[in-house]
Amino acid sequence: MGVVTKRSSMTFFSDPASHYSHRVRIVLAEKGVTVDIVDVDPDNPSGELADVNPYNALPTLVDRDLVLYEPNIMMEYLDERFPHPPLLPVYPVARANSRLMIHRIQRDWCALVDQILAQPTGKAADAARKELKESLLAAAPLFAEMPFFMSEEFTIVDCCIAPILWRLPALGIELNEKQAKPVQKYMDSIFAREGFKASLSDLEEDIRS
Known about the structure:
The chain has a four-stranded mixed sheet, covered by helices on one side. The chain is of the alpha+beta class and 209 residues long. It is globular, with a radius of gyration of 17 Å. It is built from eleven helices and four strands, in the order βαβαββααααααααα.
């Protein structure tokens, strides 16, 4: 967190290929937030990003004098700053369960996605693909229980899962098995949302074009 001057609107510095940036873009789109989205090449960050973030880290959210560097904190901040529609449950127990689920997604799925993207070839990548696919298939019954992931309403948890599922073709993972039908149905529903479609960068659109 830091202090910024000479800014009157919200700016989101985004890696157009990153699933971490994508999850925040989904929140912004679902809430209809007016924001300047600045695509940044992580290998060649702009001077503008360095002016607000000494780490040159992506994503970075700037809202007036506030700078946030961590995507999950950004999502919760946006949910509080723009409360409608709510993307976290009202009740403390349900909110805690949502946060725990995000932690599990981060540990169990995002870590494997990051491993595959960092080194797409070789035995380690193949093992990570196998583990991610098996984990998604094992979770298939959870996708079938409610309209959204373990919820009657679209939540921040869905914002974390959707970018991973959208990237499966780029990760070299296919979910064609019969047991994957609940996941496929979930993907069809999420990917059809106007907020999700609006969140896609040009690079992300190309993944499933």
